[in-house]
Write a structure and sequence with these properties.
With about 160 residues, this protein is of the alpha+beta class. Strands 1, 2, 3, 4, 5 and 6 form a 6-stranded mixed beta sheet that branches. About 5% of the residues have low confidence.
């Protein structure tokens, strides 16, 4: 009787680990402000999703710049305050839609960001059958981006 009970418990424990695994591939993580530098640059942890790793990294850069411009970025550190959006105007996305379509479409946003952080764990990837999700640290030159938006009369 004891052996049957032990065999039953062992088999239940063995099958308990065989449950359905869930993927975080479709979970969209909000960008987070890691730190600010004294030269007007900010390091932002962003997530990009695309068909391959290189494209997902580019998408993460685009997400980081987009969030800085329109939504601002919440800080994860107690020593760094959150970053407010550069464009505070109501309906700015619609009003300047043509400008921002060119800005992001032609890759001009890449002048204001970089993913040069090569420390261990600065970039992580999750792969599924259809896509790759890249979490990476993106350095955004907010001071230069703000100056560009002022020159183009998007902000004052």
């Amino acid at each position: 009787m004891k052996i049957k009970f032990i065999a039953l418990v062992a088999s239940l424990l063995a099958f308990a680990g065989c449950g359905v695994t869930t993927s975080l591939t479709y979970y969209d993580a909000a960008p987070q402000l890691i730190r600010s530098e004294f030269d007007g640059t900010y390091v932002i942890r962003a997530c990009g999703i695309d068909k391959d790793a290189a494209s997902a990294m580019i998408e993460a850069q685009k997400v980081a710049v987009y969030e800085v411009i329109f939504n601002g970025v919440v800080s994860t550190s107690s020593t760094t305050s959150s970053l407010k959006p550069l464009v505070m105007e109501v309906n700015a996305k619609e009003k300047y839609q043509d400008y921002f379509n060119l800005f992001f479409g032609k890759g001009e946003y890449r002048k204001y960001c970089a993913t040069g952080d090569r420390r261990s764990g600065s970039s992580t990837y999750q792969r599924s059958n259809q896509e790759v999700k890249c979490f990476t640290n993106v350095t955004v030159n907010v001071a230069a981006l703000k100056e560009k938006l002022k020159q183009d009369n998007i902000i004052k």
